[in-house]
Amino acid sequence: MIALNDGVPLDGFLPVNAESAQALAESMDNSGVGILHDIVPDAILTQMRSFVAHQIEQHSGQYFGLEGEAWIVDTCLNPLFEDAGFHALLRCLYERKMRASPPSDRIFPVLRGLTGTHGLRHALNFHYDSYVVTVLLPVLIPNGPDEPPGHLVMFPNLREARRFAVVNILEKLLVERLLKRTWRSPRVQQWLSAKIVPLTPGNLYFFWGMRSLHANQACLPSSVRCTALLHFGDPHEGNVFKGISQRLHVKRLRRMARD
Questions:
Q1: Which of 71, 92, 198, 224 could form a cystine bridge with 66, CB 3.0-4.6 A?
Q2: How far is 136 from 10, CA to CA, in rounded Å?
Q3: Within 13 Å and on the Cβ side, how many CA atoms surround 38?
Q4: Whether pTM exceeds 0.85
Protein backbone atom coordinates (compact mmCIF):
# COMPACT_ATOMS: atom_id res chain seq x y z
CA MET A 1 0.00 0.00 0.00
CA ILE A 2 1.27 3.46 -0.90
CA ALA A 3 0.66 6.52 1.25
CA LEU A 4 -0.53 9.58 -0.61
CA ASN A 5 1.56 12.74 -0.42
CA ASP A 6 -0.14 15.83 0.99
CA GLY A 7 -0.92 18.80 -1.22
CA VAL A 8 -3.54 21.11 -2.66
CA PRO A 9 -6.32 19.38 -4.65
CA LEU A 10 -6.47 20.01 -8.40
CA ASP A 11 -10.08 20.30 -9.63
CA GLY A 12 -11.12 17.98 -6.81
CA PHE A 13 -8.37 15.40 -7.34
CA LEU A 14 -5.70 14.93 -4.72
CA PRO A 15 -2.27 15.68 -6.24
CA VAL A 16 -0.07 13.04 -7.81
CA ASN A 17 3.59 13.53 -8.62
CA ALA A 18 6.86 11.74 -9.38
CA GLU A 19 7.84 11.62 -5.70
CA SER A 20 5.65 8.51 -5.41
CA ALA A 21 7.52 6.67 -8.18
CA GLN A 22 10.07 4.77 -6.08
CA ALA A 23 7.55 3.43 -3.56
CA LEU A 24 5.07 2.55 -6.32
CA ALA A 25 7.71 0.79 -8.43
CA GLU A 26 8.89 -1.25 -5.46
CA SER A 27 5.34 -2.32 -4.66
CA MET A 28 4.68 -3.17 -8.32
CA ASP A 29 7.85 -5.26 -8.41
CA ASN A 30 7.26 -7.03 -5.10
CA SER A 31 3.51 -7.59 -4.96
CA GLY A 32 2.35 -6.79 -8.49
CA VAL A 33 0.36 -3.66 -7.62
CA GLY A 34 1.04 -0.21 -6.17
CA ILE A 35 -1.83 1.89 -4.83
CA LEU A 36 -2.43 5.59 -4.36
CA HIS A 37 -5.42 5.96 -2.08
CA ASP A 38 -8.41 8.31 -2.34
CA ILE A 39 -7.14 10.28 -5.35
CA VAL A 40 -10.57 10.72 -6.93
CA PRO A 41 -13.27 12.17 -4.64
CA ASP A 42 -16.85 10.92 -4.43
CA ALA A 43 -18.22 13.98 -6.24
CA ILE A 44 -16.21 13.18 -9.36
CA LEU A 45 -17.07 9.48 -9.15
CA THR A 46 -20.75 10.42 -8.98
CA GLN A 47 -20.42 12.50 -12.17
CA MET A 48 -18.62 9.66 -13.93
CA ARG A 49 -21.32 7.19 -12.91
CA SER A 50 -23.92 9.37 -14.61
CA PHE A 51 -21.76 9.26 -17.74
CA VAL A 52 -21.53 5.46 -17.41
CA ALA A 53 -25.30 5.10 -17.02
CA HIS A 54 -25.78 7.09 -20.23
CA GLN A 55 -23.31 4.86 -22.08
CA ILE A 56 -25.07 1.71 -20.89
CA GLU A 57 -28.36 3.12 -22.10
CA GLN A 58 -26.77 3.90 -25.47
CA HIS A 59 -25.55 0.29 -25.68
CA SER A 60 -28.92 -1.29 -24.85
CA GLY A 61 -27.91 -2.34 -21.36
CA GLN A 62 -24.83 -4.24 -22.50
CA TYR A 63 -21.05 -4.02 -22.26
CA PHE A 64 -19.37 -0.92 -23.65
CA GLY A 65 -15.76 -0.01 -24.24
CA LEU A 66 -14.43 3.45 -25.12
CA GLU A 67 -10.84 3.91 -26.31
CA GLY A 68 -8.69 6.94 -27.10
CA GLU A 69 -8.70 10.57 -26.02
CA ALA A 70 -12.08 11.46 -27.54
CA TRP A 71 -14.16 10.04 -24.69
CA ILE A 72 -12.17 11.47 -21.78
CA VAL A 73 -11.64 15.10 -22.83
CA ASP A 74 -15.21 16.13 -22.02
CA THR A 75 -15.47 14.20 -18.75
CA CYS A 76 -14.55 15.10 -15.19
CA LEU A 77 -11.51 12.78 -15.44
CA ASN A 78 -9.78 15.06 -17.94
CA PRO A 79 -7.94 17.18 -15.30
CA LEU A 80 -6.18 14.01 -14.08
CA PHE A 81 -5.51 12.89 -17.67
CA GLU A 82 -3.81 16.22 -18.45
CA ASP A 83 -2.12 16.78 -15.09
CA ALA A 84 1.63 17.43 -15.42
CA GLY A 85 2.39 15.68 -12.12
CA PHE A 86 0.57 12.55 -13.24
CA HIS A 87 2.45 12.54 -16.55
CA ALA A 88 5.75 12.99 -14.71
CA LEU A 89 4.96 10.03 -12.45
CA LEU A 90 4.17 7.76 -15.40
CA ARG A 91 7.30 8.84 -17.22
CA CYS A 92 9.43 8.16 -14.15
CA LEU A 93 7.93 4.67 -13.72
CA TYR A 94 8.59 3.84 -17.37
CA GLU A 95 12.20 5.00 -17.15
CA ARG A 96 12.78 2.98 -13.98
CA LYS A 97 11.57 -0.20 -15.66
CA MET A 98 12.86 0.22 -19.20
CA ARG A 99 16.08 2.16 -18.49
CA ALA A 100 15.17 4.42 -21.40
CA SER A 101 12.90 7.35 -22.15
CA PRO A 102 9.38 6.54 -23.37
CA PRO A 103 8.79 7.00 -27.10
CA SER A 104 6.21 9.69 -26.28
CA ASP A 105 4.28 11.15 -23.35
CA ARG A 106 0.96 9.91 -24.76
CA ILE A 107 -1.53 8.32 -22.36
CA PHE A 108 -4.03 5.92 -23.94
CA PRO A 109 -7.30 6.03 -21.95
CA VAL A 110 -9.91 3.25 -21.95
CA LEU A 111 -13.29 3.09 -20.19
CA ARG A 112 -14.84 -0.38 -19.77
CA GLY A 113 -18.37 -0.99 -18.55
CA LEU A 114 -19.17 -4.62 -17.77
CA THR A 115 -22.87 -5.39 -17.57
CA GLY A 116 -25.48 -7.59 -19.23
CA THR A 117 -24.79 -10.91 -20.88
CA HIS A 118 -22.12 -9.35 -23.10
CA GLY A 119 -20.21 -8.32 -19.99
CA LEU A 120 -19.75 -11.99 -19.09
CA ARG A 121 -17.84 -12.51 -22.33
CA HIS A 122 -15.12 -10.20 -21.06
CA ALA A 123 -14.56 -12.03 -17.77
CA LEU A 124 -11.31 -13.98 -17.25
CA ASN A 125 -9.91 -12.93 -20.63
CA PHE A 126 -6.31 -12.94 -19.45
CA HIS A 127 -4.02 -10.69 -21.45
CA TYR A 128 -0.87 -8.60 -21.45
CA ASP A 129 -1.18 -4.90 -22.16
CA SER A 130 0.78 -3.30 -24.99
CA TYR A 131 1.97 -0.60 -22.59
CA VAL A 132 4.60 -0.81 -19.86
CA VAL A 133 2.58 1.04 -17.18
CA THR A 134 -1.13 0.53 -16.54
CA VAL A 135 -3.17 2.63 -14.11
CA LEU A 136 -6.62 1.36 -13.15
CA LEU A 137 -9.25 3.65 -11.64
CA PRO A 138 -12.38 1.86 -10.37
CA VAL A 139 -15.42 4.03 -11.11
CA LEU A 140 -18.19 1.64 -10.09
CA ILE A 141 -17.71 -1.76 -8.42
CA PRO A 142 -20.61 -4.09 -7.48
CA ASN A 143 -20.94 -4.25 -3.69
CA GLY A 144 -24.38 -5.69 -2.95
CA PRO A 145 -24.99 -8.77 -0.77
CA ASP A 146 -23.84 -11.93 -2.57
CA GLU A 147 -22.91 -9.78 -5.59
CA PRO A 148 -19.54 -10.77 -7.14
CA PRO A 149 -17.46 -7.56 -7.38
CA GLY A 150 -15.37 -8.62 -10.37
CA HIS A 151 -11.98 -8.39 -8.68
CA LEU A 152 -8.84 -7.79 -10.70
CA VAL A 153 -6.90 -11.07 -10.92
CA MET A 154 -3.33 -11.25 -12.18
CA PHE A 155 -0.21 -13.32 -12.50
CA PRO A 156 2.21 -10.56 -11.42
CA ASN A 157 5.31 -9.92 -13.48
CA LEU A 158 5.12 -13.23 -15.31
CA ARG A 159 7.52 -12.02 -18.01
CA GLU A 160 9.83 -9.13 -18.82
CA ALA A 161 8.73 -6.20 -20.98
CA ARG A 162 9.28 -7.06 -24.64
CA ARG A 163 11.41 -4.63 -26.61
CA PHE A 164 10.60 -6.10 -30.04
CA ALA A 165 7.06 -5.85 -31.38
CA VAL A 166 7.04 -9.11 -33.30
CA VAL A 167 8.16 -11.07 -30.22
CA ASN A 168 5.46 -9.41 -28.14
CA ILE A 169 2.74 -10.16 -30.72
CA LEU A 170 3.69 -13.83 -31.10
CA GLU A 171 3.88 -14.29 -27.34
CA LYS A 172 0.49 -12.64 -26.85
CA LEU A 173 -0.99 -14.92 -29.52
CA LEU A 174 0.31 -17.99 -27.70
CA VAL A 175 -0.62 -16.89 -24.18
CA GLU A 176 -3.91 -15.08 -24.84
CA ARG A 177 -5.41 -17.26 -27.56
CA LEU A 178 -3.91 -20.75 -27.59
CA LEU A 179 -3.55 -21.04 -23.78
CA LYS A 180 -6.51 -18.89 -22.75
CA ARG A 181 -8.35 -21.74 -20.99
CA THR A 182 -5.24 -22.61 -18.98
CA TRP A 183 -5.20 -19.35 -17.02
CA ARG A 184 -8.83 -19.76 -15.97
CA SER A 185 -8.10 -22.99 -14.13
CA PRO A 186 -8.23 -22.57 -10.31
CA ARG A 187 -5.43 -25.13 -10.05
CA VAL A 188 -3.17 -23.14 -12.39
CA GLN A 189 -4.01 -19.90 -10.56
CA GLN A 190 -3.04 -21.52 -7.26
CA TRP A 191 0.11 -23.09 -8.68
CA LEU A 192 1.34 -19.82 -10.21
CA SER A 193 0.24 -17.71 -7.22
CA ALA A 194 -2.32 -15.59 -9.01
CA LYS A 195 -3.08 -12.42 -7.08
CA ILE A 196 -6.64 -11.28 -6.37
CA VAL A 197 -6.89 -7.48 -6.08
CA PRO A 198 -10.10 -6.05 -4.57
CA LEU A 199 -10.85 -2.64 -6.06
CA THR A 200 -12.05 0.45 -4.21
CA PRO A 201 -13.46 3.36 -6.25
CA GLY A 202 -11.32 6.47 -5.98
CA ASN A 203 -8.01 4.66 -5.60
CA LEU A 204 -5.43 4.42 -8.39
CA TYR A 205 -3.95 0.97 -8.96
CA PHE A 206 -0.60 0.83 -10.77
CA PHE A 207 0.91 -2.31 -12.30
CA TRP A 208 3.30 -3.35 -15.05
CA GLY A 209 0.68 -4.03 -17.72
CA MET A 210 3.10 -5.48 -20.25
CA ARG A 211 4.62 -7.86 -17.69
CA SER A 212 1.56 -9.01 -15.71
CA LEU A 213 -1.03 -11.35 -17.22
CA HIS A 214 -4.35 -10.03 -15.94
CA ALA A 215 -8.14 -10.12 -16.25
CA ASN A 216 -11.29 -9.33 -14.31
CA GLN A 217 -13.43 -11.88 -12.52
CA ALA A 218 -17.04 -12.26 -13.59
CA CYS A 219 -19.92 -10.07 -12.40
CA LEU A 220 -23.64 -10.77 -12.54
CA PRO A 221 -25.35 -9.66 -15.76
CA SER A 222 -27.54 -7.41 -13.61
CA SER A 223 -24.49 -5.69 -12.06
CA VAL A 224 -22.39 -2.83 -13.40
CA ARG A 225 -18.61 -2.82 -13.08
CA CYS A 226 -16.83 0.14 -14.63
CA THR A 227 -13.12 0.96 -14.65
CA ALA A 228 -11.01 3.60 -16.36
CA LEU A 229 -7.61 2.41 -17.59
CA LEU A 230 -4.77 4.81 -18.34
CA HIS A 231 -2.02 3.13 -20.35
CA PHE A 232 1.43 4.68 -20.72
CA GLY A 233 4.64 3.84 -22.54
CA ASP A 234 4.30 1.69 -25.64
CA PRO A 235 7.86 0.68 -26.60
CA HIS A 236 6.56 -0.48 -30.01
CA GLU A 237 4.76 2.76 -30.87
CA GLY A 238 4.68 3.30 -34.62
CA ASN A 239 5.86 -0.23 -35.45
CA VAL A 240 4.17 -1.75 -38.52
CA PHE A 241 3.56 -5.04 -36.69
CA LYS A 242 1.87 -3.14 -33.86
CA GLY A 243 -0.57 -1.60 -36.33
CA ILE A 244 -1.58 -5.04 -37.59
CA SER A 245 -2.05 -6.27 -34.03
CA GLN A 246 -4.28 -3.30 -33.16
CA ARG A 247 -6.54 -3.92 -36.15
CA LEU A 248 -6.95 -7.58 -35.18
CA HIS A 249 -7.80 -6.51 -31.61
CA VAL A 250 -10.53 -4.16 -32.85
CA LYS A 251 -12.02 -6.91 -35.05
CA ARG A 252 -12.05 -9.30 -32.08
CA LEU A 253 -13.94 -6.83 -29.89
CA ARG A 254 -16.50 -6.23 -32.62
CA ARG A 255 -17.01 -9.97 -33.03
CA MET A 256 -17.53 -10.39 -29.27
CA ALA A 257 -20.17 -7.63 -29.38
CA ARG A 258 -22.06 -9.36 -32.21
CA ASP A 259 -21.96 -13.02 -31.16
A1: 71
A2: 19
A3: 6
A4: yes
